[in-house]
Amino acid sequence: MTTLPAALTGEALRRCCDPATFRFKTTNDLESLDDSVGQERAVEAVRFGVGMRHEGYNLFAFGPPGTGKYSLVRRYVEEKAANDPAPFDWCYVNNFAEPHKPHILRLPAGRGASLRDDMERLVEDLQATISSTFESEDYLARKQAIEEEFKERHEKAFNDLQEQANKKDTALIRTPMGFAFAPMDRGEVVNPDIFRKWPKEHQEKIKKTVAGLEEDLQKLLKLVPQWNRDQRDKVRALNKEVTEFAVGHLIDALAVRYSDLSE
Q: Collapsing DSSP states into helix, strand and coil, what is residue 49?
């Protein structure tokens, strides 16, 4: 007959420790274990893998959930990173000449994030500064002066042609289609029906005069697009001048902050 072991009481199923023997107040005071208990080969494999400095190698930790795989690998990766030199920060910046080929900057560790934040603040400052600059009374007055300069140039050119035509008993008339010349008599435009009753010699003289004036008008009209371009160029030059003056100190301050970098 088989004899069974003596039954254990509930108190005997667990080990009791006297808290008075502990030399710490909470487990937060204890140092973490350097290695995972019973995982010496796994620890050695992680150390070896983390030490590989070549590309293309990976760590694959396999095991039941809750066994500390992630914590183990992370701890050794962080230790390795703490002992190795900090890698450079690499930043891509816009290439205004060729936007599809951005420039790359190599910066000391941590300076990349600093540059990013500074550039974001710079953009905000530029938006506010440029907006207020182009709404200032000084800028609007200078722009208006340019517009009036070319407006006067247009008006003077057409007024001169008008005076030239009037001296030859001809009027320069604006129409929905552009400009036209008409004969005049005693300072008044002549009705076409009346013009046809004039002597043929006088009609031919007027027609010849109109033909010459139309040539002068065409020469003048060919100058108008160039004058418009000249006006836009002067406005662009003004915009460039006031923009550089308004934002130059912001960009200069940023350049000084990063002047210690060689690249």
A: helix
Q: Which of 149, 133, 168 is nearest to 241 (CA)?
A: 133
CA distance 131 to 20: 72
CA 74 to centroid of chain Cα atoms: 38
Report pLDDT digits (tens) over 50-84.
888 888 888 888 888 887 888 888 888 888 888 88
40: enclosing H helix or E strand: helix 40-51
Helices (H), 134-199: 137-167, 192-195
Residue with tokens 């072991």: 5
What is the average pLDDT value for the chain, to the nearest integer? 87
In this prediction, residues 147-170 reach a mean pLDDT of 91
Q: How far apart are CA 226 and CA 258, in angstroms?
A: 44
Q: Which residues, other chains included, contact 184 with Cβ-Cβ below 8 Å and sequence gap of 6+?
A: 166, 169, 170, 171, 190
Count other C-beta atoms under 10 Å from residue 217's C-beta.
19
Instruction: Using a cut of 0.85, tell me whether the model's pTM lies above it.
Output: no
Closest to 62 in 3D by CA, of 52, 53, 72, 54: 72
CA distance 185 to 163: 15
| Placement of tokens 């796994």 in the chain | 42
The 10s digit of each residue's pLDDT in 110-126 is 999 999 999 999 999 99
